[in-house]
Amino acid sequence: MSQNASADKGFDDLLAANRGYVDNFDMAGFDGIARAGVAIVTCMDSRIDPLGLVGLKPGDAKIFRNPGGRVGSSALEALVLATHLLGVDRILVVPHTRCAMASNSEVELRERVGASAGKDASWMTFHAIEDQEQALREDLAKVRTHPLIAEGTLVGGFVYDVDSGLLRPVS
Ligand SMILES: [Zn+2]
């Protein structure tokens, strides 16, 4: 599908679907506390269903997503809030196999975006991941050593296999 073909539709298809969603909506009055006490940091990849892959549903968990599923400053802000104010006592950091952020170099990402945009993208940083497991270990350390993550919070790292659905622990 070309970019224009989807832009021509506007948001009508999605808003129509939303009206159907409202008909079956049963979460009115939810307080925003993560009922299962879980927070998940993962990639924006469309192959990942972060709640479904660990048997959870809306209301159960805090989900923080970005390209690569990295723990940066905004993820840490979310996790500090989640562990103190939103009932979270277990955090999963979940990068995945065949991630574009780990299979392209920074230069390649800039070239591909530049080619799509038809303009220079060399000034933008995408934070390509050189070694996924090493990056995950660094991200786990950032969470575990953060002075404001609530004490006693369990922090686990897992690589999600987008072809089997399996989580592989990384320590
Ligand atoms: Zn990814």
With strands numbered from the N-terminus, the spatial order across the biggest sheet is 2-1-3-4-5
- Bound small molecules, deduplicated: zinc ion
* Residues in helix, %: 25-40%
| Averaged pLDDT | 95
**Roughly what fraction of the amino acids lie in strands?**
15-25%
What count of helical segments does DSSP give?
6
The CATH fourth-level homologous superfamily: Carbonic anhydrase
Radius of gyration: 18 Å
CATH level-3 fold name? Beta-carbonic Anhydrase, Chain A
Unreliable runs? none
Topology order in helix (H) and strand (E) letters: HHEEHEHHHEE
CATH architecture: 3-Layer(aba) Sandwich
Catalytic activity: hydrogencarbonate + H(+) = CO2 + H2O
Keywords: Metal-binding, Zinc
EC number: 4.2.1.1
Enzyme class: lyase
Describe the structure.
With 171 residues, the protein is an alpha/beta fold. It has one domain (31-170): 3-Layer(aba) Sandwich (Beta-carbonic Anhydrase, Chain A), CATH 3.40.1050.10. It has helices at 3-8, 12-23, 73-85, 100-103, 106-117, 132-145; strands at 38-43, 61-66, 90-94, 154-160, 167-170. It has a 5-stranded mixed β-sheet, covered by helices on one side. Strand 4 (154-160) and strand 5 form a beta hairpin. The chain starts with a helix and ends with a strand. The mean pLDDT is 95. The structure holds zinc ion (ZN).
Short account of what is shown:
The chain is an alpha/beta fold. The chain is built from six helices and five strands.
How is the topology of this model organized?
Elements: H1 3-8, H2 12-23, E1 38-43, E2 61-66, H3 73-85, E3 90-94, H4 100-103, H5 106-117, H6 132-145, E4 154-160, E5 167-170
Parallel strand pairs: 1-2, 1-3, 3-4
Antiparallel strand pairs: 4-5
The structure holds zinc ion.
Zinc ion (ZN) binds at residues 43, 45, 68, 96, 99-101.
